[in-house]
Amino acid sequence: MTNLPSSARKAALVFGGSRGIGAATARRLAHEGYAVALTYASRTDKAAEVVGSIEADGGVAIALQADSSDANAIATAMDAVERLGPLHVAVVNAGIYEGSPLEQFPLDMLDRMLAINVRGVFLAVQAAASRMADGGSIITIGSNTAVRSGVVGSSVYAMTKAAVATLVRELALDLAPRKITINNIQPGPIGTDITAGFLDHLVEGNPLKRVGRPDEVAALAAFLSGAEARYITGASLTLDGGYSI
Ligand SMILES: NC(=O)c1ccc[n+]([C@@H]2O[C@H](COP(=O)([O-])OP(=O)(O)OC[C@H]3O[C@@H](n4cnc5c(N)ncnc54)[C@H](OP(=O)(O)O)[C@@H]3O)[C@@H](O)[C@H]2O)c1
Questions:
Q1: CB 57 near ligand 1, within 6 Å
Q2: Which atom of ligand 1 is nearest to 41's Cα?
Q3: How far apart are the CA of 192 and the centre of ligand 1, in A?
Q4: Is 189 in contact with 195 (CB distance < 8 Å)?
């Protein structure tokens, strides 16, 4: 933990930081010395746990309830983030997985995934970029399913994550004049609530015979937001133990 006085702290924002990959990323960015804001949809208890653990470690964190599909909620959250310090890093992690074979695929499931995994990512990037200091970093959490899922019923989820990869590649051009980098991490199977139901299948299909840990994704996010990664932008980096090969 870098113990900077609070007035010197830069802010980092993690969309969807109450559980799993987002929680690990919030903790890691706090450890790097950022004052961290994290958003969540409904799990106030989990968000408070993450804030509490960062504070116990000497860091600064706030939790903001803001559904990623709600543009007004995101705008309100951005006002609170600004009070933490100048925004230098935004990690757009909030996302959901739902699956079904084509024949029974419910349209409301399709709409939810598009609203959160695609529209929500665009809203978050747009809001973060508008408040971010020049030279900052935006990182999205896509998925290796944009390359290969290997799981029947994952078509729409995979499509949403392929959309994120394309969005990031193209937005790199929009953001380059301000020296803001934007990159997309494509995790493979990671041990979180999302994968809890089918871990065995995911381990079996993985060359390294394990699932990844949230802190391994957080480490890549920390690298992409750091000084050594300033020449990387528009990239999708897959981190999946070789699962997509
Ligand atoms: N786990 C994997 O194997 C894996 C692999 C590839 C990609 N990913 C991607 O990584 C990201 C995180 O996954 P995870 O496994 O860490 O998931 P998770 O454990 O289910 O956590 C999801 C996080 O996103 C938040 N969230 C969900 N919907 C939201 C919404 N509408 N508005 C605001 N926040 C919302 C949740 O908040 P609440 O706690 O309030 O619900 C929670 O903090 C997702 O984009 C997922 O698609 C995961």
A1: no
A2: 40
A3: 9
A4: yes
Which of 19, 49, 112, 244 for a ligand 1 pocket mutation test, highest count of atoms within 8 Å of Cβ? Answer: 19
pLDDT computed for residue 41 by the predictor: 98
What's the farthest any 2 CA atoms get from each other in the chain?
57
Q: Say what the pTM is.
A: 0.97
The amino acid that residue 122 corresponds to is F
Phi and psi angles of residue 64, each rounded to the nearest 5 degrees, phi first: -130, 125
pLDDT at 51: 98
Distance, CA 23 to ligand 1 centroid (Å)?
9
Q: Quick one: tokens of 207?
A: 């060359």
* pLDDT tens digits, one per residue of 138-191: 999 999 999 998 889 999 999 999 999 999 999 999 999 999 999 999 999 999
Is the distance from the beta carbon of residue 20 to the nearest atom of ligand 1 less than 6 Å?
A: yes
Please report the domains of the chain, with CATH numbers, ordered by start residue: 6-239 (3.40.50.720)
pLDDT less than 50: residues of the chain: 2
Q: On the CB side of 103, how many CA atoms lie within 13 Å of its CA?
A: 0
What distance in Å separates the CA atoms of residue 51 and residue 85, rounded to the nearest whole number? 17
Which amino acid does the sequence have at 231?
A: Y
